[in-house]
């Protein structure tokens, strides 16, 4: 069995080690100290008198710090060890480790403490397929520093390790020869800084570090303030308050400040998506609107600033298109991968408009709507000008970059995710059903913004006509009357991809489903083929490609289920929504800790436990956000003018729920509910 991996993180700076705190290359996992897609430490091993150390216990204090309690040697030495070690590790803009060696003997003792240090400066995208780099090492004995650097043309990265205690510094690390009195201790602080060099040698992280310098000693205060600004949950269900605060803490950990931008936005998640991912960030903001609304304006402004402005096949860029991914690694810098600014997503652009409208509904921030008028209209124009690749009125995708662009450019973006019931892949360009729902919703919301804020009623009328036509066309072409559900996609010839998938739940969320078909869709979502007991599977059982451990062909995603539950409530299927919410909350509380990105789709009655997939990230912003959205959906929170409407449908067994100080245009409101309460009532506003 693989040893447990331990992480500390802050924004997109993170360190992953083994249970002892040591870092050694692992071809299957991104072990090391990373920032902005580069590994700054690939080897960080502590030895006492030449021996490796072993773990006694660990205290995970916060997301950004942990303590390892250790002894040298094998397990047989634990009981009567004369020496023990504490490693107190933390990250913010840099990496810190305080090493304390304790002498438990009745005599003075001398020890040789060795910290082995190395960096390969690998791009996180190439972990598992590493290449050699010419890493330069400089020893500064006088300054107790070890400097490691790598440079390739304009791409330059540096790692500096410095100790507060006297050390013998060599190219492989630092050695401390120490003397400890009986019952005494020895301490050193190791500081690892990470430098990103830009033009003329300028440190691109300097601005971030100056900002973080003020936060360095107050990261706990920053977390406390974040938690205090969010609504307070009071719940009868045991453990629910803890799960809620854990999700908020995970979201705090997953905020980062992109280079050259001033506001913190959510990254995708640990370990592979520690970057700005347009889809993940937008959906996270939509999920958390009632809880952490400050994420939305920063995300909207950042995505607007990076909006596509030209035709660029390499980066799948088109005018008006919203970013899919922003990366800073070496492969992105030199075009080995098109990820420096990559636009290969068909859904981010309509979702950008959805988020802008939803944020105004909650916040009343008309100034932001006016500020982002041009980016929003460009996004709406993209839907018809570049999204409609075959002229049939549907948003389709086909990668421009045939070498290494994303094959599937919807939320189910694995290469084999879009297949029919017999496992056959359709031709390109593909029109997946949920993207049409997003486009429909974007046009309706864009019409509201145009009429109320942009002073353009004619444009609003046009968008409303286009939305109505899209809904009618969609319900004609995507509906499978014999199966009574919507096709996963249309191929370029208009033929439906007839598989049953969780995507139909997104259609309820967007409102594109015809009223007389909503009940059939709802029953499929909670039927035995899609609903596992923990949540809705991405792909229904009984189809050839179904695989319970396939991320998009049978796995259960909390983020997917949060949108589905919200869609069910939109069409007043409260019992079905509550069933899904209960399953996801059971999943979260059973696993404890951060909510995983995806679990296996095995039936709950078979496994009795949510089976995690090794490839799943944890924590993930839209998984942590999913719990908040499900809580808001269970309470039925909805802004209505300057009031907050509360219309609960709480799952059985939850008892009483109170959500206090919900922020919004109304100031702050409280919401109260009990199991399966169905009567709408207005909240109390303060």
UniProtKB/TrEMBL annotation:
The record ties this protein, via InterPro entries, to: 6-hairpin_glycosidase_sf, 6hp_glycosidase-like_sf, GDE_N_bis, MGH1-like_GH
Q: What is the lineage of its organism?
A: Bacteria, Bacillati, Actinomycetota, Actinomycetes, Micromonosporales
GO biological process: one example: carbohydrate metabolic process
- Give start and end of each Mannosylglycerate hydrolase MGH1-like glycoside hydrolase domain: 392-605
Domain Putative glycogen debranching enzyme N-terminal, residue spans = 10-190
| Pfam families recorded | GDE_N_bis, MGH1-like_GH
Q: Which SUPFAM superfamilies match?
A: Six-hairpin glycosidases
Can you name this protein? Answer: Glycogen debranching enzyme
Protein's organism: Micromonospora parathelypteridis
């Amino acid at each position: 069995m693989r040893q447990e991996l331990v992480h500390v993180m802050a924004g997109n700076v993170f360190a992953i080690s083994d249970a002892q705190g040591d870092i050694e290359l692992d071809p299957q996992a991104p072990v090391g100290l990373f920032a902005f897609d580069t590994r700054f430490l690939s080897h960080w091993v502590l030895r006492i008198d030449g021996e490796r150390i072993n773990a006694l216990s660990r205290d995970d204090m916060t997301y950004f710090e942990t303590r390892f309690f250790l002894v040298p040697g094998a397990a047989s030495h634990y009981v009567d060890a004369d020496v023990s070690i504490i490693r107190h590790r933390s990250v913010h803009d840099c990496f810190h480790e305080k090493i304390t060696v304790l002498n438990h003997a009745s005599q003075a003792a001398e020890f040789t403490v060795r910290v082995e240090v190395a960096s390969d400066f690998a791009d996180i995208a190439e972990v598992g397929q590493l290449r050699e780099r010419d890493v330069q090492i400089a020893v500064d004995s006088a300054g107790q520093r070890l400097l490691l650097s790598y440079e390739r043309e304009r791409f330059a990265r540096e790692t500096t390790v410095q100790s507060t205690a006297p050390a013998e510094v060599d190219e492989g690390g630092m050695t401390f020869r120490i003397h400890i009195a009986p019952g005494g201790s020895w301490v050193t602080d190791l500081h690892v800084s990470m430098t990103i060099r830009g033009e003329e040698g300028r440190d691109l992280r300097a601005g971030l570090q100056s900002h973080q310098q003020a936060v360095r000693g107050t990261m706990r205060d920053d977390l406390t303030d974040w938690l205090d600004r969010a609504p307070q949950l009071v719940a009868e269900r045991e453990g629910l308050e803890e799960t809620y605060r854990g999700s908020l803490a995970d979201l705090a950990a997953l905020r980062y400040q992109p280079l050259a931008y001033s506001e913190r936005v959510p990254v995708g998640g640990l370990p592979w998506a520690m970057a700005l991912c347009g889809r993940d960030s937008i959906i996270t903001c939509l999920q958390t609107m009632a809880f952490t609304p400050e994420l939305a304006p920063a995300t909207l402004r950042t995505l607007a600033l990076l909006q596509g402005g030209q035709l660029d096949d390499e980066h799948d860029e088109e005018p008006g298109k919203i970013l899919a991914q922003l990366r800073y690694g070496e492969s992105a810098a030199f075009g080995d991968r098109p990820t420096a600014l990559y636009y290969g997503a068909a859904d981010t652009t309509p979702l950008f408009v959805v988020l802008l409208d939803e944020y105004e509904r909650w916040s009343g921030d008309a100034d932001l709507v006016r500020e982002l008028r041009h980016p929003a209209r460009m996004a709406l124009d993209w839907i018809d000008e570049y999204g409609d690749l075959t002229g049939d009125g549907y948003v389709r995708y086909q990668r421009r970059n045939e070498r290494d662009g994303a094959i599937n450019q919807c939320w189910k973006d694995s290469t084999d995710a879009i297949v029919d019931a017999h496992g056959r892949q359709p031709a390109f360009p593909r029109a997946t059903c949920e993207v049409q729902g997003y486009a429909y919703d974007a046009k309706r919301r864009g019409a509201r913004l145009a009429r109320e804020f942009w002073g353009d009623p004619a444009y609003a009328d046009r968008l409303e006509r286009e939305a109505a036509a899209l809904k009618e066309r969609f319900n004609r072409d995507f509906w499978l009357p014999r199966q009574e559900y919507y096709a996963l996609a249309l191929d370029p010839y208009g033929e439906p991809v007839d598989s049953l998938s969780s995507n139909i739940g997104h259609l309820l969320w967007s409102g594109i489903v015809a009223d007389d078909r909503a009940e059939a869709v709802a029953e499929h979502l909670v039927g035995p083929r899609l609903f596992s007991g923990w949540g809705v599977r991405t792909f229904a059982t009984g189809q050839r490609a179904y695989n319970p451990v396939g991320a998009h062909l049978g796995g259960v995603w909390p983020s997917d289920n949060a949108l589905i539950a919200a869609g069910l409530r939109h069409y007043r299927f409260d019992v079905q929504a509550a069933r899904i919410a209960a399953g996801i909350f059971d999943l979260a509380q059973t696993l404890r800790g951060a909510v995983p990105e995806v679990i296996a789709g095995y039936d709950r009655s078979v496994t009795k436990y949510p089976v995690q997939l090794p490839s799943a990230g944890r924590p993930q912003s839209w998984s942590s956000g999913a719990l908040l959205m499900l809580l808001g959906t269970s309470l039925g929170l909805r802004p209505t003018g300057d009031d907050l409407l509360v219309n609960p449908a709480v799952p059985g067994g939850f008892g009483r729920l109170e959500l206090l100080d919900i922020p919004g245009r109304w100031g702050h409101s409280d919401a109260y509910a009990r199991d399966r309460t169905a009567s709408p009532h207005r909240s109390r506003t303060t």
